[in-house]
Amino acid sequence: MPGPMLSFRASSHEYLEKFNTSAAITMGNSQDVSPAQNSVQSYGFLRRLRVRLRNSVASSGGTFNADYPAKLLSAIALTDPNGAEIYGGPTWSGYDAMLAEKYGAYKAVNDPELSPLFSASTTTPLYVWTIPLELSESSGYGSLPNFDAQSPYKLKLTLDSNANAFSSAPTTTQAQLLFDYIIECWTLPDAVNKLTGLQQSVFPPGIGQNLFGVNGVGCTVQHWSKSNPGITASSAVTASLIRKGNTFRGLVMVVRNSSGVRQAVSNFPNPITFQVDGAPLWLGFDPAVIVEEWFRREVGQAGNTNKSADTGVVPVMFAAPDAINIAGVDGTLGGQGWLGNNQASRIEFSGSWGANANQLDVLTNDVNGVSLEGSAYAFAYGQQLAAASMPSVRSGS
Prior knowledge:
Elements: E1 5-6, H1 8-11, E2 14-21, E3 25-26, E4 31-32, E5 45-57, E6 63-64, E7 73-79, E8 85-89, H2 94-102, E9 127-132, E10 144-145, E11 154-159, H3 162-165, E12 166-168, E13 176-186, E14 199-200, E15 221-227, E16 236-240, E17 247-256, E18 272-276, E19 279-285, H4 287-296, E20 313-317, E21 347-352, E22 359-368
């Protein structure tokens, strides 16, 4: 009779590699700052990518506009070897990446601007952007096979121009920047543990069996994307979500004026109603209370760190329902509370928008999952919630 099989997390090791560093890049015009051939280093099971900004030459100063230095990357996109989008896109900025990480419930401290590698100085800006793939630190769920050096994942990055980044640009010396490109992976485990002789799991959960080495196919993949449902300032308008069809892990909504500047949360409808196929999940609610709910889920952060919200940002969290802002910390795959939907679903935010609410950014974190039926992880499969179906007790419909 075969003995117990070790979990993937107990079978694999963490692997880190800085696979490329850019040449020194002088700020000025918008320019491509992608790694060589846009290629991501192939190794093991890819958990996340990091892009680290550091200085080669300090600038003579200047003043950043709002959303910078995070938005120094004006576009971030990760695609699979077939060109299918996984993360971001041509309108996905470094500021969007910051919001996805801060409100994405991945680690105990999620805000990249609390990092010791962060500086908002215009003379020597420092930043680390993260592209998450793994959904649960405790299991490796969502990590993607990354073995084929001939067909790598592709990463495209664009550095923003001085005209966009600064309200007053450096007067004499322009900053020269370096970009480090870093992969965080799991190693490929042996089938048998060399010390104990126990069988080991060679796949993280979420990868379809018999597809070993196939990048992005038959795998559970999380996506982050941006859309802009139509709203009208000073009007009662229903904002209908555009990105649908996969399981929602979370949303981040940002309200901006006609110039693209973030506005106070008071420009969201108050009261606001959030409903799925006519069934309300928020009914006549103050969006400021939703922001406060996010604050209460930040218990993983140290007591003296900054848990402040961002102007104009309302997170809608389906992940981390245990009020602990680390996915999978309870020993599951972290999928409880995710919101199932399909292309025909009506997912809407309604109410009267404020006088400065001209644009709504919706950052959607959704998961395209592979069935775990028959695997050791099947106990956690299907824990996401179906779309709401209870009729409103207020309307009796």
